[in-house]
Structure formats: structure tokens, C-alpha cells
């Protein structure tokens, strides 16, 4: 069950960004091109996640990305990876905090209370921080419950929306250029960015076999892909590309279903909140472990660095949910594509000392797959500058 729960943590970490941002970003391209683009990015990110898993299993006593980078890339490599890791996790924490604050603000307004967004996401962040500090077993159990509930909500939403699918919306020709496709690839890339929790999960499942770790990563990557495809099909089929592409906030996407039943609108709101919460749990767990691994073992200091700093940044970058995911996508290229690639090149050298446990994993594909991974990262990196 630990491995299954870990796969759900991987899935949940990705879903918060993707389920909410993907419809707003991909709608302008139409369903068919969006499907192709998601499949390409899914393959690239999944292979990169497996590379990071390999590097983690081949590092003795790795408890975080900092330890893995130090063992494989040296001191300078460790500092570079730590910098990118912090920037990435901070961007994602800010994005999820803003999304949750927006949803909670609308919820309180519906109940007759005008609670500001900063107060909403501050209370939520500090409360969830107490759970993260309690340990991975608590995160695992809570995430399982939330994830299963989220899937139930998704099934209810999909079942309702599928009865109102307009085929014309799915087949309508979208007005876009290749420039636009490249431009928004970073946001889609971020929607599969669950690999930030892999060092924590490999350490959590240190008794697992290489095959089990591989299957954990594959399952944790396939679940978001399937959810994204079904979700995009339902949203585009109900609202159309023109309407969705005008949305900038999560609450606007939910409000678009005001013409449907109030129950459906409420279920979508709950589902959106659960998607953000599961992602917040995974990302905050990764950032907390990184702070303890690289800066201080003191829980109080690690807690402050993990949850206080993102709150400060969220107050400075309000109304920037999709933009923060865009920034995260650029950083992810270094951290989640080129970083694991460089680590694997080092740990595969004959001179590298492997752990004594013998439970090491090597990704198939050889040099051809490594070169393809580098080119995939270059494509995403270039796309960020086309703004």
C-alpha cells in the first residue's frame, strides 16, 4: 500500500496544476492537437522522472535532491540543483496558494463572509504545514483519502458533463499558430511536474525493489494523463474553445457552469479544491524535506522556510496562477530534465561507487534516449522565451 500511496502522491502533485490550468491553456488549440501535445510532453516528463529515480537509487543515504546532487554532481552541482529546486517549489507553492485562496474566498462569499484571499491561503498553508511536519505516513494517509474523494468527484462531474457534450465544440477549427503551441508548452510541461517528490518517495520506499519503484513512477504518471484527457474532453465539449480561452482564474472556470445545476457547480468547486490540496501536499513535502536536507534539521526553521516564504511571495504575485506555472516550467527544464540527465550520466560511469544495498535501478533506452531527453528539454526551454 505504501507504493500505491506513493503513486497517488505523484499523481496528486501533478493534478493540481493540470486539471485547472490545462483547460484554460489548451482550449485555444482544439481537442485533437491538445491530445497530441499532451502525449508528447507526457512521454518526455515520464522518462525524465525515471532518470531521477535511477539517480536516487544509486545514491547512498539519499534523503533529498541535495544529497543526490552532491553525490553525483559534486558541490557546485549540488548548489545549482538546490537553487533551481527552491525556485521551482516556491513558484508552485505560490501558484497553489493563489488558487486555493481564490476558491476559499468564493466559498466564504457564498456563505456571507467577505474573507480576503491572503487570509484564506495563509490559514490554509499554516494548517497544512502542521500535517507535513508530522511525517510522510500522515501525508500518505491523508493524500489517499483526498485523492480517492477527488476521483469520485471527477467521476460525478464527468458523468454529468458527458450528457451535454457538443461534438461541434470538439471538432471546431482552432485559430492558432505553431508559435502559440510552442509558447504554452511550458504550462503543460508543469502539469506533469510531479517528479519533485521522487527523492522523498524513494527514501520513503527504500525497501522497494527497482521494478516496484519503476511501476510506482509509471502509475503516478499515467493517472494524471488519463484524468487530463477525460477532463479536457468534458470541459471543451461543454463550453467550447472560444469561451474557455478567455478565463484567467479558477473561479471563472467554475462560474462558467452556473447555467448547469447548482449541485454540479458545487461539485466542480470541491473537485478543484481537492486537486489543489493534493498538489500542495506533495510540493510542500518536497520543499520541507529539501530544507531539512540542505539547510537545517530543525523542524521549526524548516517549517518557516517551507510555508512562510511562499506566503510572502503569494502576496506579491496575486492573480498570477497560470503565470507562476509558466515560470515553474522554465525552471523545471534544469531541475527535472537536464538535472537528472546529468546525474545519470555520472552515476553510470564505471568509477562511480554504487550503494551496498544492491537495490539500484537503471532506465532502459541507452544513449539515444538520453540525447532525446536533452532535446526535449531544449524544446521546452526555448518555448519559455517565446512570450
Describe the structure.
With 387 residues, the chain is an all-alpha fold. Helix 2 crosses helix 9 (198-204), helix 3 (65-110) crosses helix 4 and helix 15 (321-347) packs antiparallel against helix 16 (366-385). The protein is globular. 79% of the residues lie in helices and 0% in strands. The termini are far apart. The mean pLDDT is 80. It has one domain: Amino acid/polyamine transporter I (Up-down Bundle). GO terms for molecular function: aromatic amino acid transmembrane transporter activity. It is found in: Cell inner membrane. Keywords: Amino-acid transport, Cell inner membrane, Cell membrane, Membrane, Transmembrane, Transmembrane helix, Transport.
Amino acid at each position: 500500500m505504501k507504493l500505491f500511496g506513493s503513486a497517488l502522491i505523484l499523481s496528486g502533485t501533478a493534478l493540481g496544476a493540470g486539471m485547472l490550468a490545462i483547460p484554460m491553456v489548451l482550449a485555444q488549440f482544439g481537442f485533437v492537437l491538445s491530445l497530441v501535445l499532451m502525449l508528447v510532453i507526457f512521454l518526455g516528463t515520464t522518462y525524465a522522472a525515471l532518470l531521477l529515480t535511477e539517480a536516487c537509487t544509486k545514491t547512498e543515504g539519499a534523503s533529498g535532491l541535495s544529497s543526490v546532487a552532491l553525490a553525483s554532481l559534486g558541490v557546485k552541482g549540488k548548489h545549482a540543483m538546490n537553487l533551481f529546486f527552491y525556485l521551482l517549489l516556491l513558484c508552485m507553492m505560490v501558484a497553489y496558494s493563489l488558487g486555493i485562496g481564490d476558491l476559499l474566498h468564493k466559498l466564504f462569499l457564498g456563505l456571507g463572509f467577505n474573507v480576503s484571499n491572503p487570509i484564506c491561503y495563509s490559514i490554509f498553508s499554516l494548517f497544512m504545514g502542521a500535517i507535513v511536519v508530522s511525517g510522510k505516513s500522515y501525508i500518505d494517509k491523508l493524500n489517499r483519502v483526498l485523492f480517492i474523494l477527488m476521483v469520485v468527484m471527477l467521476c460525478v462531474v464527468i458523468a454529468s458533463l458527458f450528457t451535454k457534450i457538443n461534438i461541434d465544440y470538439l471538432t471546431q477549427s482552432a485559430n492558432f499558430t505553431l508559435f502559440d503551441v510552442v509558447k504554452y508548452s511550458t504550462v503543460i510541461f508543469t502539469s506533469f511536474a510531479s517528479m519533485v517528490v521522487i527523492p522523498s518517495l524513494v527514501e520513503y520506499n527504500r525497501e522497494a525493489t527497482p521494478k516496484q519503484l519503476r511501476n510506482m513512477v509509471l502509475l503516478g504518471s499515467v493517472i494524471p494523463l488519463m484524468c487530463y484527457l477525460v477532463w479536457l474532453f468534458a470541459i471543451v465539449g461543454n463550453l467550447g474553445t472560444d469561451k474557455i480561452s478567455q478565463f484567467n482564474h479558477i473561479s471563472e472556470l467554475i462560474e462558467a457552469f452556473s447555467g448547469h445545476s447548482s449541485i454540479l457547480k458545487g461539485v466542480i468547486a470541491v473537485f478543484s479544491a481537492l486537486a489543489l490540496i493534493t498538489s500542495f501536499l506533495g510540493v510542500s513535502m518536497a520543499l520541507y524535506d529539501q530544507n531539512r536536507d540542505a539547510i537545517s534539521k530543525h523542524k521549526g526553521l524548516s517549517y518557516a522556510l517551507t510555508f512562510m516564504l511562499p506566503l510572502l511571495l503569494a502576496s506579491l504575485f496575486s492573480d498570477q496562477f497560470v503565470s507562476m506555472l509558466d515560470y515553474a516550467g522554465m525552471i523545471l527544464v534544469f531541475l527535472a530534465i537536464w538535472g537528472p540527465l546529468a546525474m545519470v550520466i555520472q552515476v553510470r560511469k564505471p568509477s562511480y561507487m554504487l550503494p551496498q544495498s544492491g537495490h539500484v535501478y537503471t532506465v532502459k533506452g541507452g544513449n539515444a534516449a538520453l540525447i532525446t531527453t536533452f532535446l526535449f528539454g531544449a524544446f521546452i526551454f526555448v518555448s519559455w522565451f517565446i512570450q
